[in-house]
Structure formats: structure tokens, C-alpha cells
Amino acid sequence: MREPVPLRNIVIEARELFREYGYEGTSMRDLAGRVGLRPQSLYTRIASKEALVSEVLALTLKETLEGLPDPVRNWRAAWRTLIERVAETLEIRGRCVGLHLAYGVTSATPDAQKAVRVFFKSLREAMTRILQVGKITSPAAIAADTLAQLEGATLWIATEGDNRPLKRAVRRALKLADPVPRRPKKSEPLP
Amino acid sequence: MREPVPLRNIVIEARELFREYGYEGTSMRDLAGRVGLRPQSLYTRIASKEALVSEVLALTLKETLEGLPDPVRNWRAAWRTLIERVAETLEIRGRCVGLHLAYGVTSATPDAQKAVRVFFKSLREAMTRILQVGKITSPAAIAADTLAQLEGATLWIATEGDNRPLKRAVRRALKLADPVPRRPKKSEPLP
DNA sequence: GTCTATATTGAGATAGAC
DNA sequence: GTCTATCTCAATATAGAC
Q: Most Cβ neighbours (<10 Å): which of A138, B89, B126, B169?
């Protein structure tokens, strides 16, 4: 009698593979190998490869949003925590599983496509709500642009291993909730 | 006797497929079908699927940079033209073939990986040179950040069909070469 | 240069024993 | 819940005729 493999482990390893190799580049064989199962045994835990996408993104969304500071009590802390959580993963892993899936899933896998839409919409709405409490102008647009800038910066990590664009994107994002508007220094890129 | 299929056609169709489905999601069968050949016949024109990547990106880089206004004579015109060329493709096609490949190629296809690096490095360096002529501060960082913002904005086109983040990224980019610094309007997002 | 035919490998998924 | 065995299909790629 062996310990059954926790579903959570499968989802976490699937996330690693989706992030690195994308939806098409990920095989159930590789995933099975990572969790120590035969490929066929995966199908007793999940219905299909496509179904893994929503599991992966639901877990990621939960990890990103759970236990955030209450925006109504301290929206700056909520914003800072959220931005730093997103940025930390992008920097450590070098890329975003959501972006890879956003580009990688097609109308051939509609459930996966919908899961990706829900993931980014939820993230953007969470950001928007925080900015609304802070009375930031055009909160929805700022939220979308901020997320786009963080995601876009991973281009340079993926191609050149350069995380400085991401760090600058984080600084611009944090400045939105900076209570003391600083005098811009001459050497500072993209104010 | 049939007209041979021009290599250029094959590369252009491969670009469509790579952009939409990524490297792994693109099959030589689909490509052959698009150009009206049997899959096997492709191999008389190109060495492998991997070799298509550098062809695709070389063509794209050429189209993006050829015939730009001379930065030394008019760097603002050069910048505007370059940004608008990049943005136009992203908006029409909804996504960037370079970004899809940047995320999609792995160390299993080192030549493709190198081609992606060269592509983005060349694009960034062209942008940097223009900004240098314009005496913009930190031109290399600004170039990298600008490209990252344009690429990142495609996230919202891909997931929600919303191109407004891209349009705002374009406006921010163009403002860098704006000769008349305007008084910021209250309703303007991400100044 | 394109075709038919084929080799080889790996993909996602199912059936049934333990 | 996991296994062995198997199905079916599609992937990249090569050989050789025309």
C-alpha cells in the first residue's frame, strides 16, 4: 500500500510545466514523471489535461489574493503586498504561468481559455478595488496597465535573464501608492 | 509542372502559426496545408521546424526596421515610425510572435532560442540608438521598458480583446519624443 | 520541387487486473 | 488509487519515384 499522491502536488507540478513549456509543450507523461505516477494514473485524479489549467490558475489566484491586508483599512499596504507577491513569483520563476497560458490556449480548449480570462480578470479587479479605495484616477485602467507592465517585463528575464525592467515596473507600480511624491531625480528612468 | 511555392510564403505562414499557436502548438502539417504542400515537401525548403524560427524573426525584424527615417536627421520621426510599426502589428494580430516564441522555445531548440534573443536585442538596440540621438536619459532602460510595455499590453488583447492598454502604452511611448510637454490632464491614466 | 510511402516516436486517453 | 496493456492519432522527418 502506497500513499496516494495529493492532488495539490499534481497541480503544483503542472503549474511548473505550464509556466516553463506552455500548454502544448507540457505532456501528461512529464507531469506523471514529476509526481511519481504512470501517465495513465493521472486520469483517476483529473479529467483531462485541459482541466488542469483551471486548477493551476485557481490555486495561483488563491495564493496571490489570500490574506491580503484589508484595502478599506489600509489600501497602500494592500497594494504593496499584492504587487510584491506578483513580482516575487515573476522574478523567482522568470515568467508568468498565466501569460504563457494566455498566449498558449486556443479555442480548441475553451474551458482552459475561459479559466485564463477569469484569472486575469479577477486579478485586475482585485487591483482595481484597492486603487478605488485610494481614490486613484482611472483605477481600472491603471490596474490593467500595471499588470501589463509587470507581465511585459518578463520578456527580458526570459530572453536575456535581465530582471531590471521588472524591478523598474515594480517601482512604478509602488509609486502609485507612494504617500510622499518625490522630486524626480535626473538619472531616473521612466518616471 | 506547377509553380514552386516561394520560400517567403512558407515563412509568412509559419509566422502566423507561431504567433497564434506558439512553437509547440505549430505543426508542419498545418503549415504545409496553408501553403498547399504535403508536409514532407517542406523539408526540401527548410531544414527543420526549428530553422523556421530564425527565418520568421529575421523577416519580422527586417520589416520593422527597413526604411526607417534616419535618426540623426530626425530622431522623433524615427521613434514615432518605429513605435507605430510595432504597435500596428500587435493591434492587428492581437499578439506578438516574438513574445510567443520567447516564452515557447526552450533549451531543446537552442538555435531557436538564440534567434529570439537576437530578435529582441536588435529591436531594443535600434530603439536605444534613436533615443540616444534624442539625448533621452537612460536610453537603454527606456527602450527595454517601452518594448516591455507594448508587449505586456497584448495580454489584454489576448484575454479580453481589449486593446486600450496597448493604445495607452503607445501614447506613453510617443510622449517620450513629444517636443511640447503638455500639462497633464486630470483624466489621464499612467502619466 | 513535389509527390507517395514509410519510419519512428510520443501524444492524450481508456479498459481492466490488483 | 495505481498498475499493465493497449488504442488511436498526430508529430517530425527520411527514402525514393517522377
A: B169
Residues B78-93, buried b or exposed e (16+ Cβ, 10 A)?
Answer: bbbbbbeebbebbbee
- pTM of the predicted protein model: 0.94
- Distance spanning both ends of chain A, measured CA to CA: 61
Task: With beta carbons under 8 A apart, name residues in chain A contacting B120.
Answer: 155-156, 159-160
The pLDDT profile of chain A, 191 residues, written as one tens digit per residue, is 578 999 999 999 999 999 999 999 999 999 999 999 999 999 999 999 999 999 999 999 999 999 999 999 999 999 999 999 999 999 999 999 999 999 999 999 999 999 999 999 999 999 999 999 999 999 999 999 999 999 999 999 999 999 999 999 999 999 999 977 666 656 556 55
Q: Which residue is nearest to nucleotide D11 (CA to C1')?
A: B27
Is the CB of residue A28 inside 7 Å of nucleic acid strand C? yes
Handedness of CA B97, B98, B103, B109 (dihedral sign): positive
